[in-house]
Amino acid sequence: MKGVKSSLSYAIGQVKLEAAWLRQKLPLRPMACLVKSACDGHLQPARSTSKRKTQLGQPHGTKLRTSHQPSDISTFRHSTPSRSVFAPVPLHRPPTTHRPPSTATIVIAMPSFGSLPDELIQQILQYLEPEHVLATVALVSHRLNRIADEPLLWKYYCQTRFRYWQSEHRFHDKLRGQLHDVNWKALYLLRLRRNSRIAHLVDGIVASRVSRLEKTEQICQYGYDAKDYLLTQCRVDESVEDVLARRYYSCTVLDSIHRSLAIEEWAKYQRFIQRVSPTVSNIERLNGGMRLERALGAFDMFMLHDNEGDLDEICKLLDDIASRFRAANPDLDRATTRGKAIALARWLHANNMTGLNDPTEETYRYLRNCLIGRALRDDQHPSLPIISAAIYSALASRSGFEAYPCALPNQVHAIVLAPPGVSLDGAVLSPGQANHQQTMFLDPYGSDEEVSVDHIQNLLFRLGIFAGHDDMLRPTSTDLIVMRTAQNIRASFTSFRTIDRPLSQLIPMIELNRGDWARNLQPALYSMIWASIMMVPILPENDEVRWDWQQDVRDLLTYFYEYFPEDSWLIEKYVCPMYDTFAAPTHQQSNWELPSKRVRDQIRDIRHVDASARVPRRRSELADGIRVRFRVGQVFKHKRYDYHGIILGWTTEGAGGITNWDQSSPSRESWRGYSEPYYRCMVGTDGSDHHIIAEGSIEAVKLRGGLEVLPTEIKDLVPMAGKFFKRWDGEAGVFVSNLRELFPED
């Protein structure tokens, strides 16, 4: 066995060695050099069938053997001083020993590269970059060209070079299918071309504000095919010249793609409602065309940024947890429904997978507790009762029994359903009882034992609810669970805004990862509004529902115009068609009367502004006697309120004159007649970049050094500062402006 392991280790070492040597040598030897080497005798590529002896890898020279040489190593006396292009290098060079001079020069060589079987060469090529294989290796010989064209090699490249795939590819289905049913090389080259196009668009977005939204929408059309490249830009090295801008805009595009997947998940409910029929099963009716974990995971997508935990990864986490539960309970399949239900509840509590550790009124409202993806990834797995019940239900479906959240007032339990015709304890029910499905209740948030119906009814009595208990003690549909989760997110947002405490004490309420609280504020509320819109059935005859829906749309459009203009394509795709459907039938007389026309006109105006260049503001053109003291990129402290901020722009036309230069800001009339400079700023109190501050209230802060010298609230704004700046200049103590088109002299 030791001999086998030793031989295997040696073979693996040789494979890695050959790949490393190819990477080092081949780029330095263009085809002209390879042809010349072949003519000189260093390399003999195949020219025709009549010259087989000169093909790649055929050894030449006189074969010798020395008395001190191991029997498995051949030696050759070469007629040329240089090594063949594909001659391998030993993995470990033997120690140098002093030997008497010899009259003959002996060159020890390993078996030649060309003598290796095709399968081993293919393994070696896996260590090379695919572009290198295409541009160099495949051109060396007919044999290498054939090996480099093998579908198995390109399938490997597709699997290892790209992690995320747009659903249109059905990539995972392709992996399970027959190898030759897919043109793997063409698929890889398609992704390569798309990456090249995406890289070009990202460069344009970072370089100029003109047509940023248009380029963003073009990237978003690629969907998840763009994610791999965007992630590399979101995590680009600090040494890059425009690191902050590149990270910010790449993350902005990625955020829009993530939101599109979340909204598409909720849109399944709208499509289900339109085709629902009396023959639909109870399970389908409860799910509403969605899967519970994905419908709740859609909220995570609004705040995912460049982190792990998208919808597919949430499902995989649940699959892994279910596998662990099954491994801990090998006899699970033989247990009754009640036994399975209680076993799962106990296992979840034993592993701290649900609930909160010592919750208080304040920690209960933390944003992270509302997100199922966050609860699954976090070491402590914090979750509200509704998320705990959802996790339990998702794991139950993977463990062989049926469970759903049961949304009671002030509390959410899990309700477990016995199979039809069978009791919870496995007994076959009589024909008279078979029509009634037995149920049991659990509280995954706070207990690992069954909760009696009497206990729940007493809870309802204490809340003043004396009727309608039977309707409440039923599974709650997925769309209502989504709506209730949205209200929990609103409550977290409201708590953050209303609690009167220093900001540093409130940040944990909205923070998911260190320093990302400012990036989560607006997306959290944005997700809640989108859910409220998408979870409303299309009932054009219901005036009350239609009115509430239109109010939600107004809130959504306000957020869209001010914070998320890159989502124009999502508004057009989902909101505008629904807007027309919710319009009263009497108003649907002609196209120009449709409610969506106004929305589409506003989107057209936004795109027009995006494609237009703005008139720059120059200090050298200011009137005599007017002086602007501070520059774009300076860090300041408010003289009265002591908070810190960053200067984004300036005007001498009054406070209203600064709002018009940004594409996503509403237009206002300038305050004419005022000569005191005003500055538009991003401040650390809320992460907003819409604050207007007079020059007299600003005190510049002198800073020198890396990002660590910045005030704490400014450090948290650094990811968002990329919207306006390229990087932090530690020597000058300012953020380097990326607004030169607007303020060329700053």
Automatic annotation (TrEMBL):
Biased composition (Polar residues): 67-78
Annotated region (Disordered), positions in chain: 43-78
Domain F-box as annotated: residue spans: 110-157
UniProt-recorded Gene Ontology molecular function terms: DNA binding
Name under which the protein is recorded: F-box domain-containing protein
Native species: Xylaria flabelliformis
